[in-house]
Amino acid sequence: MKPKKIAPQPWAMAETIVFNTLVAYFRDAQYYGNVFAVTGNAGCGKTFAAKWFAGENKSVYHLECAEYWNRKTFLEKLLLAIGEQQPGGNVAEMMDATVDALFQRETPLLIIDEADKLSDQVLYFFISFYNLLKGHCGIILMATPHLAQRIERGRRLKRKGYAEIFSRIGRRFIPLSAVSKKELAAICNANSISDEETITTVYHECEGDLRRVEREIHKRRRKNLQQQNN
Q1: Where is the ORC1/DEAH AAA+ ATPase domain (predicted)?
Q2: Residue 213 is part of which domain span?
Q3: pLDDT per residue over 80-109, tens digit each?
Q4: Residues 60 and 161 in one domain
Q5: What is the rounded CA–CA span in Å between residue 38 and residue 51?
Q6: Domain for residue 3, yes or no?
Q7: Residue ranges in 104-208 assigned as alpha helix (H)
Q8: What percent of the chain is helix, strand and coil (3-state, nearest 5)?
Q9: Contact status, residue 22 vs residue 89, Cβ threshold 8 Å
Q10: More confident position, 226 or 55
């Protein structure tokens, strides 16, 4: 006999230092056309905050990058994110269409998530976007600390484009902090887990990765619901 299926519960948001820090930089970049590069470990909440901000604000375009993208794929995905439903043409035409579309928006913000997955040839687009949209469109590069290490190594080796990228982000990568136990407790409480022993166990097992936290909370929710239904 198959176990009774339990409907998944929605994930409740709890504000963390990472979330509030990112929202502050998103707002600054959007309303003042600023450019920032933000780095944080995998699972620290970068993508969650970006999706939330894009859902709550107009003219905010969040793009999750992938390592297999070439230049044309990147521009196709970006045009779709902006709202252009039938992107096409060569790279130059698509670049022009992207810039034109962003100029038509009021206070646009482009969040390039997982930027460390992009090849050099695609990452160079950041330089062009900065040059063509400066003061009109905010840009946020988000990645793991690997991007900062990559840019620093490229600068040291005098590789093409790396010094230009570093200059355009203000010669600084903004590091995000790891989730604290107090913040994790707030996340657990928001998602119906309040037992202190359970929270402590989750904190020590998650290693700062909120994806792991979500899995652990889901597992404990499911266990609690099953016990209630028995």
Answers
A1: 33-150
A2: 181-229
A3: 999 987 777 899 999 999 999 999 999 999
A4: yes
A5: 15
A6: no
A7: 120-123, 125-133, 145-156, 162-168, 181-190, 196-206
A8: 55, 10, 35
A9: no
A10: 55
